[in-house]
Write a structure and sequence with these properties.
CATH superfamily of chain A: MetI-like
Number of domains of chain A: 1
Shape of chain A: globular
Chains: A mainly alpha (327), B mainly alpha (376), C alpha+beta (587)
Strand content of chain A: under 5%
Radius of gyration of chain C: 27 Å
CATH topology of chain A: MetI-like fold
Oligomer: heterotrimer
Number of helices of chain A: 12
Distance between the termini of chain A: 6 Å
Largest sheet of chain A: none
Helix content of chain A: over 70%
Distance between the termini of chain C: 50 Å
Strand order of the largest sheet of chain C: 8-9-10-1-11-19-12
Largest interface: A-C, 74 and 85 residues
Radius of gyration of chain A: 24 Å
Number of strands of chain A: 0
Strand content of chain C: 15-25%
Number of helices of chain C: 16
């Protein structure tokens, strides 16, 4: 298994590099000049050129590419144009926030989605099944930023203005006096801030997972061994949970890997609405500001997440399904 | 065959007057309802908007298309119904193909049929919009009287530039639907061709294509999308369609390749090889038609995805050139007014949800119907 | 049984929610106590040698103040301010031109030599006093001797000289280098007389004091060794700044927040330590979220709510809306190099065919003033009568102007053509993500159609747009832009023939009489003498119409009612942040 993982990771290096290269040329060949952002009316053309020199933009593109590759080999992603800090530092600061949000959302979505999917499959064609399908599809079809805004208005603004017993903060990952809280209060404060963004993200995912679980369960329920189990007189509960569920979940579990990359695009919108300082928003801002080093660094991280996600899916597959072995 | 409406002649007469009704009465409520509503609605359009209809022929292209749609819709509905009624008996006796089986299975799925009817209607409305929209979508009323709440005069209210939300939504349907349609068209074409090639030809072609697929799948798609749309000049609708299309195909390619791999070894394909057909012909004429089922399903689901994605782009400020409205840009532009003029973004938002739900229902229905194992 | 499981599920969900509800009370209030240096400071920039060293020194110096009790009832509490943008260049004045950044440098973390009072008269701040030689060729500043950098070094004349030298060094590429146009930039330009006295040489001109209002003094002992080309990316700016102003930097969370703490060593002569214990600046990009945070008490100040949000702020019991005229105007610049726009009558017609008053009343909700020139309403040189009638909304007048200029609808398609058959069709470009500019372009499209002009609004990404309007071949017809006016009014970069090929000559109009004013105005020192000259100059601008000046929008700010002592005007939101206070029972 270890050799398999190592081999896969090594094999992914050219893939990630290829992606980074394409993005490098797309952003660098696009019209416009990052130095424009720093220019001002009173700035002479010489000063403007000086900024380009200071940022290393005066070199031709192939030199810049080689330099970038060279620095990358040493783990250096350069210094952000717009934030004036090393890109690795910024990623170190923001990636954990995105991971926290994504993994919480994935966790909630899987629990919610699988439970709902089982319920729907067990009661196929019932009223509950139809309602759950439609409601699920409703969330699945909603632009996520719109859902997020509704959450803000409903559970933060109106909840507070109308004096509901509960209300959640609309932005950021922590309260402003986070530094003074006790460890327990810190955890609580984080969770409190996490609730709305994670729920917004999870609702969209859960709908998909429920659909998948339902289909998978239905397929398993029709299998012969389930019929045998029933014939043996086992209770419906044992049949469903002991025999069917385990097999039905195999394909569902692998979704974890496939959802990882999706989450990174999904978080862009959630992060923007909830002012959640994370990677998605960082990269989108960087694109709009032509902050080449951050665009490149962020894309690398995203591409690696996809590779890791696929790997996780394969490994999980092997874990839950003993028939599959990677040697 | 039981016939509640008596002899064929009376059904024909009924069909001549109200196409769709005979089908509706015998319980084929999907097509029947669709035919009847189209007939009635288009007749109403013809009667109430006669001036615009007549002027449409000499007007701009979208007007011509609208007028043409009305005529075609009316003639088509009428002709189909008459043909359908007169040939009903023969149709039922005709042979049973896979597609017909699937169609039968699909019809049993009530909710999917509703989805299909919704989609057809949304497309029809989009086509005849120039005839029925109450206002010009770019026309601004007096700015001081902007943000009018939904009323008799403005069904869904007006927006922050005093434009009619209802009319803009109708025009927006055209943009959102075309983006979905074209982008998915591009991706499905590329995906099917490459997938079929890789699966059928195998060898190094397969290896190269699948490496490429891996790369495009691993691509941070949103990053590329935003980079291209944001950095390369102005945002034309074609650029957005193309970028969405060219990044969406790998899923299709993978599915098609998988199907083709199993098809390749089947007897009928071997037979074509034995007959000495060219590989191009085998792939295009014999392999691809047999993998269309899953492709149709992905395409249907894909259109919904693209519509939502376009809304997301608009939210990031990367939508279409104004004043062209798309549902996505209407939701995005109206979100700042959620508190004092909720109608600006809520109605287009509901339109997106409704349409995407419909596409998903149809997609699910098609999957169930096209997969023999899932037919109940 | 299944129902029972569902019930358990609901119970779990309910518990989670209740836990969230409790969390809300955790953060609300903290007892006012003795001054303590915040622990987060020690972590700022850990791993970066420069930062580790300076934060250690700050901690060492500040530790002597720990345990000091707040001097008055007003002292204590935390104030939270939020706006849609980061502070891009942080506290590094050498490279910054951003408004929010310069506000924080001037009023929060660093200090300027002088500040303005509400009549734009210079007041002592870091400089105790100054005198100008009789021939106005020398200015001598006497620096306060009780201002400490937060790491314990005294701020002195060498810091002032250092800041000036950096600013004029071309390798720094200081964005506001033009402040110093009239200062002697040679080796004799600046002279440190003694530790707290510094002298500058200059050509006599008006507004000689203004640069010292805008330029925050930087610490030489920390940055003196850094090569000018590396200043922009130096960790000082955004990771571990060390200022000398009323607030100590504590923490910067990228794209999220900046935290500052009251500086106990701030000179008593300048009011001593600020009232509030902490000041937090937060970045929230979505305006609905910002408004929600303000209305739910998460924020004390919401910088610049949209005009359409103003009513919600006014209606709320918990917050107030502050409104005041500001220094920025919105304009539509016309590219006079284009054949359709070369004739000033066409440009006049485009202005007169647009109902700007209606746009101010509707889109700005009345929070603004129609602009007819580049002098903002609060400025001493402002004259409201200029252009008021000449450029009023009048479609017939606009049509007449176009007719006179030879643009007539010759083929009956609703759009005018000239004698050669060129259609009067123009595009108006604007940048992404600015709804107001998009609205203006769309409104002009609708309104100018009435007078036979075809307008196509075109959205372009910001960087590309700057390129297209600023660089040859100037690929645009009209462009919606905003402009922030400095107190030192100077349109030379915009309208002087000499700068015709420079970046900001968007319009490319040339007129000798305008040039003459632009050359002379900066040299007239006496305001009474200068005012009529400014009026004459503005009249010429109205006639030439290089831009359709659109409006000066008022600045709006949403303020939580618990926050007292807030003063805001065109000088900025952070103007008197050290005097803001919160009653003890509302902290």
């Amino acid at each position: 298994m270890t050799t398999f993982i190592v081999r896969r990771l090594l094999g992914a290096i050219p893939l990630v590099l290829g992606i980074a290269t394409i993005i490098f040329f797309v952003v660098n060949l696009a019209p416009g000049d990052p130095a424009d952002r720093f220019s001002s009316p009173s700035m002479s053309p010489e000063a403007r050129e000086q900024i380009r020199v200071n940022l290393g933009l005066d070199q031709p593109i192939h030199i810049r590419y080689v330099r970038w590759l060279g620095a990358l080999a040493q783990g250096d992603l350069g210094v952000s144009f717009s934030r004036n800090r090393p890109v690795t530092d910024i990623i170190q600061e923001l990636l954990p926030n995105t991971l926290l949000l994504s993994f919480t959302a994935i966790g909630v979505a899987f629990v919610l989605g699988i439970l709902l999917g089982i319920l729907q499959a067990v009661r196929q064609y019932s009223l509950l099944d139809s309602i759950a399908s439609i409601v699920g599809l409703f969330f699945y079809s909603m632009p996520s930023f719109w859902l997020a805004l509704m959450m803000v208005l409903l559970f933060s603004l109106f909840a507070s203005v109308w004096g509901w017993p509960i209300y959640f903060p609309a932005s950021d990952i922590q309260s402003i006096d986070y530094a003074f809280l006790s460890p327990f209060e810190k955890v609580r404060d984080r969770l409190w801030h996490l609730t709305l963004p994670a729920t917004s993200l999870a609702l969209v995912l859960a709908a998909g997972i429920a659909r998948y679980t339902r289909a998978s369960m239905l397929e398993e329920i029709r299998q012969d061994f389930v019929r045998t189990a029933r014939a043996k007189g086992l209770s419906e509960r044992v049949v469903i949970f002991k025999h069917t569920l385990r097999n039905a979940l195999i394909p569902v579990i692998t979704l974890v890997g496939l959802y990882l990359p999706f989450l990174f695009s999904g978080t862009v919108f959630i992060e923007t609405v909830f002012a959640w300082p994370g990677m998605g928003k960082l990269v989108v801002d960087a694109i709009l500001q032509r902050d080449y080093p951050i665009i490149m660094g962020g894309s690398l991280v995203f591409a690696m997440m996809v590779v890791v996600g696929n790997l996780v899916a394969d490994v999980l597959y092997a874990v839950v399904d003993p028939r599959i072995r990677y040697d | 065959m039981t016939d509640r409406l008596g002899p064929r002649r009376s059904r024909l007469a009924l069909s001549a007057l109200l196409p769709g009704l005979p089908q509706l009465v015998v319980g084929r409520w999907g097509v029947g309802g669709l035919g009847l509503t189209v007939w009635v609605a288009f007749l109403a359009v013809l009667l109430t908007r006669w001036a615009r209809f007549a002027a449409g022929w000499g007007g701009p292209l979208d007007h011509q298309i609208a007028s043409l749609t009305v005529v075609a819709g009316l003639l088509g509905t009428w002709g189909w119904s008459m043909f359908d009624v007169s040939r009903q008996a023969e149709l039922e006796r005709s042979g049973i193909s896979q597609w017909k089986l699937a169609a039968e299975a699909f019809k049993k799925n009530r909710i999917a049929v509703i989805g299909a009817v919704v989609i057809v209607w949304v497309y029809l409305i989009a086509l005849v919009t120039p005839l029925i929209a109450p206002y010009d979508p770019a026309m601004q009323g007096p700015l001081m009287g902007r943000l009018v709440a939904p009323s008799g005069e403005f069904l869904l209210g007006t927006d922050h530039l005093s434009r009619d939300v209802f009319s803009r939504m109708m025009y927006g349907a055209r943009i959102s639907l075309s983006i979905g349609f074209v982008a998915v068209g591009i991706s499905v074409t590329i995906g099917t061709l490459l997938g079929a090639m890789a699966g059928y030809l195998g060898g190094w072609i397969d290896a190269v294509v699948m490496r490429f697929v891996d790369m495009v799948i691993s691509f941070p798609r949103l990053v590329l999308l935003i980079a291209i749309v944001a950095l390369f000049d102005t945002q034309s609708i074609f650029l957005i369609m193309a970028v969405l299309g060219f990044t969406q195909w790998p899923g299709t390619a993978r599915i098609v390749r998988g199907e083709v791999l199993s098809l390749r070894e089947q007897e009928f394909v071997e037979a074509t090889r034995a007959l000495g057909f060219s590989r191009r012909r085998i792939i295009l004429r014999h392999v691809i038609p047999n993998v269309l089922a899953p492709v149709i399903v992905t395409a249907t689901l894909g259109i919904g995805n693209v519509i939502v994605l376009e809304a997301g782009l608009s939210f990031l400020g990367l939508g279409l050139q104004p004043p062209t409205p798309s549902w996505g840009s209407m939701v995005a532009d109206g979100r700042d007014f959620l508190l004092n003029a909720w109608w600006i973004s809520t109605f287009p938002g509901l339109a997106i949800v409704l349409t995407v739900v419909a596409f998903n229902l149809v997609g699910d229905g098609l999957r169930d119907a096209l997969d023999p194992r899932l037919r109940a | 049984m299944r129902e029972a499981r569902l019930a358990r599920l609901i119970l779990v969900a309910g518990l989670t929610v209740m836990m969230g509800a409790c969390g809300g009370e955790g953060g609300a209030s903290r007892e006012a106590g003795p001054w303590m240096l915040e622990a987060s400071l020690a972590e700022a920039g850990s791993g970066i040698p420069f930062c580790e060293e300076v934060t250690a020194r700050v901690s060492a110096f500040m530790s002597q103040f720990e345990g000091q009790m707040p001097p008055s009832e007003r002292h204590g509490g935390a104030v939270v301010v939020a706006s849609i943008g980061e502070i891009p260049d942080g506290m590094n004045n050498h490279v910054s031109q951003d408004y929010t950044a310069s506000q924080h440098q001037s009023f929060v973390n660093l200090m300027t030599l002088v500040t303005y009072d509400e009549n734009q008269i210079a007041m002592p701040y870091l400089a105790e006093s100054w005198e100008v030689s009789d021939d106005a060729s020398e200015i001598t500043f006497h620096i306060r001797d009780d201002v400490y950098w937060h790491d314990g070094e005294l701020t002195d004349a060498y810091d002032v000289a250092y800041t000036f030298k950096r600013a004029i060094d071309p390798e720094t590429a200081f964005p506001n280098a033009a402040y110093w146009t009239h200062y002697d930039q040679g080796p004799d330009g600046v002279e440190v007389v003694d530790s707290f006295t510094v002298k500058f040489r200059m050509r006599p001109h008006a507004d000689y004091i203004d640069p010292w209002r805008a330029t925050a003094i930087m610490p030489e002992h920390l940055l003196g060794d850094v090569p000018s080309t590396e200043l922009r990316q130096h960790p000082y700016g955004t990771v571990c700044p060390v200022g000398n102003g009323p607030f100590i930097f504590v923490e910067h969370r990228e794209a999220a927040s900046w935290t500052f703490q009251a500086n106990p060593a701030f000179p008593a002569g300048l009011g001593g330590r600020p009232y509030v214990d902490r000041y937090v600046y937060r970045v929230i990009t979505e305006q609905t979220t910002l408004l929600t945070e303000l209305l739910t008490g998460g924020l004390d100040v919401y910088i610049r709510p949209m005009p359409d949000q103003a009513q919600a702020v006014i209606d709320s019991d918990a917050v107030d809306l502050l409104q005041y005229p500001f220094r920025s105007y919105v304009l539509v610049g016309w590219n006079a190099r284009r054949p359709q726009l070369a004739d000033k009558r066409v440009r006049q017609a485009l202005t007169r065919g647009t109902n700007r008053q209606e746009i101010v009343d509707a889109l700005l909700q009345g929070y603004g003033t129609v602009a007819n020139g580049s002098v903002p309403p609060f400025h001493w040189a402002y004259d409201p009568s200029i252009g008021r009638d000449a450029m009023s909304y009048d479609q017939d007048a606009a049509r007449a102007l176009l007719d006179a200029a030879g643009w007539v609808d010759r083929d009956g398609d609703g759009v005018r053509e000239n004698a050669e058959g060129v259609r009067l069709a123009i595009s108006i470009k604007y940048n992404h993500g600015n709804d107001m500019r998009q609205d203006i372009a769309e409104i002009m499209q609708a309104q100018l159609a009435d007078i036979g002009v075809e307008v196509t609004p075109t959205v372009v990404e910001w960087g590309t747009l700057l390129d297209q309007i600023g660089q040859s071949p100037r690929d645009f017809d009209g462009v919606v832009m905003g402009w922030v006016v400095e107190y030192k009014l100077d349109d030379t970069d915009l309208f002087h023939s000499r700068n015709i090929s420079a970046t900001y000559a968007w319009s490319g109009t040339q007129r000798p009489d305008i040039d003459r004013f632009l050359d002379e105005l900066p040299l007239v020192v006496d305001r009474e003498e200068a005012k009529p000259l400014w009026s004459q100059y503005q009249e010429l601008l109205v006639d030439e119409q290089p831009y359709t000046f659109f409006f000066f929008s008022d600045r709006l700010d949403g303020i939580n009612k618990r926050l007292r002592g807030v003063e805001m005007d065109a000088r900025g939101e952070w103007l008197n942040i050290k005097d803001w206070w919160i009653p003890a029972d509302l902290r």
